[in-house]
Specification:
Number of domains: 1
CATH topology: Rossmann fold
Order of helices and strands: EHEHEHEHEHEHHEHH
Strand order of the largest sheet: 3-2-1-4-5-6-7
Bound molecules: NADP nicotinamide-adenine-dinucleotide phosphate
CATH architecture: 3-Layer(aba) Sandwich
Radius of gyration: 18 Å
Oligomer: single chain
Number of strands: 7
Strand content: 5-15%
Length: 267
């Protein structure tokens, strides 16, 4: 299969106002000369990013401000992204987590987690796949899962479940879309030093520089390599790859027991 050529073509990136999404948008513009359409809720951050990418890298960059936990915003993102524009790539990266006792996760917070991490991904994939296949353009779709999708993670139980869904859905979708020429890449990183850790409180437990913890730019480089090579599943970094191997070899109960000791809140 030919590589995914992003130069001079448009790629949609959700969750591009911070962390991995922001760095993937930068990498697409800087390293691949691609145009980007970035999506998130924080308009100021998206506009600053677009200005930066246009000025520094001479690419086209536009933003759509949207809350992907709202179905009407998800539909609008697709409409605005594809109005008078042919997308060649789409990276569905926006995500949120919850760290704590699973039974204390409020129903509303769980619904937001599910809508953002799962429902928006399924709906956007369904809308985007035929568009990326149009005119035989053989585009590419990347879904951001996590090592937490390979291994059950206690105290991130609901998040871990959403990422397991994305992994399974993406790998299955890759096969369904094969005849259309559209590649689907599931990217499953481990810890990345981003705002997600601050927002969830996980920064009390995991910090930049810890063993296996990646920086967002480093992780984005891995993600873009997998995306442009049309890899079906990519787990970046030797430690995460060792965990992925353990997930295949060890009983899930044993993995969950060990993971619980790492993630249990408290001193
Ligand atoms: N950090 C890690 O250790 C880690 C590990 C494995 C996988 N991941 C995955 O990597 C992806 C990126 O996470 P990150 O670490 O880069 O976190 P981050 O810095 O918190 O970025 C999350 C992005 O998602 C956007 N977002 C969140 N809720 C949204 C909503 N309702 N509508 C639209 N956009 C929304 C945020 O933008 P706004 O707030 O502006 O809307 C932000 O741009 C996520 O899918 C995450 O699960 C992260």
């Amino acid at each position: 299969m030919t590589t995914l050529e992003l130069r001079g073509r448009w790629t949609l990136v959700t969750g591009a106002s911070s962390g991995l999404g922001l760095e993937m948008a930068r990498a697409i513009a800087r390293d691949h000369g691609g145009h980007v359409l970035v999506v998130a809720r924080r308009r100021d951050r998206l506009e600053a990013l677009c200005e930066e990418l246009r000025t520094r890298h001479g690419v086209q960059a536009e933003c759509v401000v949207a809350d992907l936990s709202r179905p009407e915003d998800v539909e609008r993102v697709f409409t605005e992204a594809t109005r008078e524009r042919q997308l060649h790539g789409a990276v569905l990266n926006a995500g949120v987590t919850y760290w704590g006792d699973a039974v204390k996760l409020a129903p509303g917070a769980f619904q937001t987690l599910l809508d953002t991490n799962v429902t928006s991904v399924v709906r956007l994939s369904a809308l985007l796949a035929p568009h990326l296949a149009a005119h035989g353009t053989r585009g590419g779709l990347m879904l951001v899962s996590s090592v937490a999708g390979l291994i059950p993670v206690p105290y991130q139980a609901a998040y871990s479940g959403t990422k397991a869904f994305v992994l399974s859905y993406g790998q299955a979708l890759a096969q369904e879309l094969r005849p259309t020429g559209v590649s689907v890449t599931v990217f499953a990183p481990g810890g990345i030093a981003t705002e997600l850790l601050e927002h969830s409180g996980l920064s009390q437990r995991f910090k930049a520089g810890d063993l296996g913890m990646m920086t967002a730019p480093e992780c984005a480089t891995h993600a873009l390599r997998a995306f442009t090579r049309r890899r079906t599943l990519s787990v970046p970094g030797w430690l995460n790859q060792a965990l992925a191997l353990a997930a295949r070899l060890l009983p899930r109960g044993v993995l969950a027991q060990h993971t619980a000791t790492l993630y249990r809140p408290g001193p």
